[in-house]
């Protein structure tokens, strides 16, 4: 396929379009009766069991999807990514988050230079620094140990590390390693987020990690200045160097801010924000909380999936299979959303992170060559842990619009509970739902079944479930740092596969720029109105009215306020 050819113009795409008619003649009730089909749609990798037999697909569908992957040169694109070629062409960058968790002796090149030694140089620096802080060798300005950490960052600098932290909080080994320590994340520029993050903290025992590649991100730097003031007002300006460190590449601005450049931890332009959790962005705060050995296990789990993704044939390649099935659901069956449903409360922040990874990566309207696409890309990702989601939005999933679901289960609970004389344990109760829901979606319930149960005639249509609603199940052996790394990498690569097939750039995010640019104009207007009393000009009627109303209703804000920090 020539680079300028859209994937929708290829024969495999056209064959899949025609194949939809065949699939529409089938029902998952019938497909699930084919044992050999179901057997072929289950696979195991490194302790993880994947079951995609409840997808609206046959073995013939899969073969057609593999032909589509070949037409889209997916294998070639994977190789180019791992070889450090600049596949992020709009920003002229390599895409090498796999290098962040590569073994120390691996060779991964960018511009002809092996980047792995640089990665490990930063990892070793993090190991050393985090051990000094955790052991009390590095202390704050008043000589007290720094047991509380606030990580300031937004988007990819926040969602990924928060997901991993939340997943580790209740894991037995991680609990022991984190005893007596706190990790909080400050992301939103809303002052309420500041208030919530510093409530109950003592500046004397707090270390702040400012995460900003350029050290210019508006929200992050305002929050950083706010916490700098919080520290300075309590301990004096000289305390900043002892209580604040940075994850950044802009050493000049780091130093101007008051942070010792020696306490800046680097990452590279070949790391996209939403793919940066395995860089210093995530590794530093997580190592401060749990110790580097725990975080290293997380990196090894992700690396295991990286190698699998790179080397496994597509028929046995978990991220490739998941990516192709997502393309099938979105582009051919017309399902625009996907529900991520982890049956583990520890994974409550997984869906919000994957929401960014997926929607910021694949929410594009043009090909990588800038050609407007005649087909939609990306999907609307959302999710909630089971069984909470069952009492929230499963009604729509079962009887409303069709939304393909990812069910994620864990064999061994992080915190098992057993009660004498109960029918099952708490975890078995949870997993009963994990096993039941996919079948409920697939099989549904027919009017005939309801009539046999003597359901009142006027309620039959209300209690009918059409079924034929696709899902897949991922069963993890446990939820330790290694498994969390595996899960992250599976979804990262799945998203890349979708983008490779659709022929888009999954590694830029120009769509976030316009809103930020317009916010800059509003910021100038608010400043001029507050400081100089200037009227609101240069906006459309609706926006002008909203801003004017806001300014009039908040006229009690002083034009030249003295510093005020939250008080809770």
Coarse shape: globular
CATH fold descriptor of the largest domain: Rossmann fold
CATH class of the largest domain: Alpha Beta
Q: What composes the largest sheet?
A: 6 strands, mixed
Averaged pLDDT, please? 96
Tell me the domain tally.
3
The Rg value, from CA coordinates, equals 26 Å
Tell me the fraction of residues in β-strands, as a range.
5-15%
The helix/strand class is alpha/beta
* Percentage of residues in helical conformation: 40-55%
Supply the CATH superfamily name of the largest domain: Glucose-6-phosphate isomerase like protein, domain 1
Strand order within the widest sheet?
1-2-13-12-10-11
Total beta strand runs: 13
- Uncertain stretches: none
Query: What is the CATH architecture descriptor of the largest domain?
Result: 3-Layer(aba) Sandwich
Intertermini distance: 61 Å
Number of helices: 23
């Amino acid at each position: 396929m020539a680079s300028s050819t859209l994937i929708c113009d290829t024969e495999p795409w056209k064959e899949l379009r025609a194949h939809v008619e065949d699939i529409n003649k089938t029902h998952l009730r019938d497909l699930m009766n084919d044992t050999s089909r179901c057997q072929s749609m289950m696979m195991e990798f490194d302790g993880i069991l994947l079951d995609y037999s409840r997808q609206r697909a046959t073995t013939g569908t899969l073969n057609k999807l593999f032909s589509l992957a070949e037409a889209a040169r997916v294998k070639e694109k994977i190789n180019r990514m791992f070889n450090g070629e600049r596949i992020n062409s709009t920003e002229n960058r390599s895409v090498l988050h796999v290098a962040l968790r590569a073994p120390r002796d691996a060779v991964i090149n960018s511009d002809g230079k092996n980047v792995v030694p640089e990665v490990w140089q930063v990892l070793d620096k993090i190991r050393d620094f985090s051990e000094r802080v955790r052991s009390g060798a590095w202390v704050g300005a008043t000589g007290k140990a720094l047991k509380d950490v606030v990580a300031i960052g937004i988007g990819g600098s926040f969602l990924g590390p928060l997901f991993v932290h939340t997943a580790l909080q209740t894991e037995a080994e991680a609990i022991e390693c984190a005893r007596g320590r706190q990790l909080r994340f400050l992301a939103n520029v809303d002052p309420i987020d500041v208030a919530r993050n510093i409530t109950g903290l003592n500046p004397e025992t707090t270390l702040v990690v400012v995460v900003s590649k350029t050290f210019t991100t508006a929200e992050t730097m305002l929050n950083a200045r706010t916490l700098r003031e919080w520290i300075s007002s309590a301990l004096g300006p000289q305390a900043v160097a002892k209580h604040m460190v940075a994850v950044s590449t802009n050493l000049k601005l780091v130093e101007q801010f008051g942070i010792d450049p020696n306490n800046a931890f680097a990452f590279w332009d070949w790391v996209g924000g939403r793919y940066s959790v395995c860089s210093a962005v995530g590794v530093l705060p997580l190592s401060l909380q749990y110790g580097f050995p725990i975080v290293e296990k997380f990196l090894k789990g992700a690396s295991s999936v990286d190698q699998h993704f790179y080397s496994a044939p597509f028929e046995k390649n978990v991220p490739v299979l998941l990516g192709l099935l997502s393309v099938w659901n979105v582009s051919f069956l017309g399902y625009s959303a996907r529900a991520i449903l982890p049956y583990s409360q520890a994974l409550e922040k997984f869906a919000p992170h994957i929401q960014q990874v997926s929607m910021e990566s694949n929410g594009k309207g043009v090909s990588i060559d800038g050609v407007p696409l005649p087909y939609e890309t990306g999907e609307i990702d959302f999710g909630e842990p089971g069984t909470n989601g069952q009492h929230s939005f499963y009604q729509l999933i079962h009887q409303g619009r069709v939304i393909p679901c990812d069910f994620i289960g864990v064999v061994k609970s992080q915190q098992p509970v057993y009660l004498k004389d109960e029918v099952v344990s708490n975890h078995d109760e949870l997993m009963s739902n994990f096993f039941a829901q996919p079948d409920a979606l697939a099989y549904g319930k027919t009017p005939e079944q309801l009539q046999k149960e003597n359901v009142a005639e006027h309620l039959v249509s209300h209690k009918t479930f059409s079924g034929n609603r696709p899902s897949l199940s991922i069963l993890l052996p446990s939820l330790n740092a290694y498994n969390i790394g595996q899960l992250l990498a599976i979804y990262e690569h799945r998203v890349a596969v979708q983008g490779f097939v659709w022929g888009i750039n999954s590694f830029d995010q120009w769509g976030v720029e316009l809103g930020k640019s317009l916010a800059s104009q509003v910021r100038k207007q608010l400043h001029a109105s507050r400081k100089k009393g200037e009227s609101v000009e240069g906006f459309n009627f609706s926006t002008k009215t909203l801003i004017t109303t806001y300014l009039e209703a908040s006229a009690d804000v002083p034009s030249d306020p003295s510093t005020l920090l939250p008080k809770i």
